[in-house]
């Protein structure tokens, strides 16, 4: 068991339909947080969307900067979709962003997500079980995390969606002053999204990603699309007006919810 201790919020004192959890992780050797939304949803084996934030962020930004709760409820009101639990973890709190990588010296931020966060969902929410389906999405650095982790662990996730994604580690330099050598992993291919996509191409979940045409990462997303096409990996790529900003993500995360709902309804 990698979770050494869980501290769970009391619903009597917590905003409606939310839950906050602090996890003491042996992978990180410290405490980090997860915020949940839609915890009052009824049912068993409910699917979970893990939402990864970008640089500078934390577990609260998807709701309190991005209004993910309002975006989710809008989709639910418009379409007859299944109930989802939204899980919004911290990235682990390293530097300006951990990139959700298994760092060589500083902690395993990858296993924090694919083990601790998933285990915390199952341990603290009665509606989430070993039979629940998990989906992964993210924005910017979180988009990179969603693409890489979804590709590396295709057995864990039923769908991948990324918004304004960093598609290669070098693009972290747009947002952080930290030398990229600080993100060194044990293997040189570890941080390469395309390496994992090609390695597991026969068992990948469905993939979608989008980017704004005014985004600093737009050209990298176009290059990533070409790599996917050349590798004959199925995907959906959409481009819209907009930049690297919360207004864009609030709007287009609704497409992620619809995308995952379509997959869930087909299973």
TrEMBL record:
Keywords: Hydrolase, Plasmid. One of its GO terms (molecular function) is hydrolase activity. The keyword Plastid does not apply. InterPro entries: AB_hydrolase_fold, Esterase-like, Mycobacterial_A85_antigen. PANTHER family: DIACYLGLYCEROL ACYLTRANSFERASE_MYCOLYLTRANSFERASE AG85A (PTHR48098:SF1), ENTEROCHELIN ESTERASE-RELATED (PTHR48098). This is Alpha/beta fold hydrolase. It comes from Catenovulum adriaticum.
């Amino acid at each position: 068991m990698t979770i050494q201790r869980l501290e769970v919020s009391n619903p009597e004192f917590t905003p409606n339909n939310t839950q906050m959890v602090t996890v003491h992780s042996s992978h990180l050797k410290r405490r980090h947080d997860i915020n949940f939304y839609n915890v009052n949803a009824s049912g068993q084996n409910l699917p979970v969307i893990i939402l990864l934030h970008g640089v500078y962020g934390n577990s609260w930004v998807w709701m309190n900067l991005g209004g993910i709760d309002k975006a989710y409820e809008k989709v639910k009101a418009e379409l007859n979709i299944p109930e989802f639990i939204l899980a919004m973890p911290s990235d682990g709190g390293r530097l300006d962003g951990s990139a959700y990588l298994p760092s060589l010296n500083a902690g395993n931020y990858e296993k924090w997500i694919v083990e601790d966060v998933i285990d915390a969902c199952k341990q603290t929410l009665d509606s989430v079980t070993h039979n629940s389906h998990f989906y992964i999405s993210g924005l910017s650095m979180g988009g990179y995390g969603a693409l890489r982790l979804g590709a590396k662990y295709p057995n864990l996730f039923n769908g991948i969606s990324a918004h304004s994604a960093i598609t290669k580690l070098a693009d972290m330099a747009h947002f952080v002053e930290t030398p990229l050598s600080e993100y060194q992993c044990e293997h040189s291919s570890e941080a390469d999204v395309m390496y994992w996509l090609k390695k597991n191409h026969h068992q990948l979940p469905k993939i979608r990603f989008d980017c704004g045409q005014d985004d600093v990462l737009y050209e990298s997303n176009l290059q990533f699309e070409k790599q996917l096409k050349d590798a004959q990996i199925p995907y959906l790529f959409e481009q819209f007006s907009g930049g690297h900003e919360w207004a864009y993500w609030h709007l287009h995360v609704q497409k992620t919810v619809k995308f995952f709902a379509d997959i869930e309804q087909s299973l």
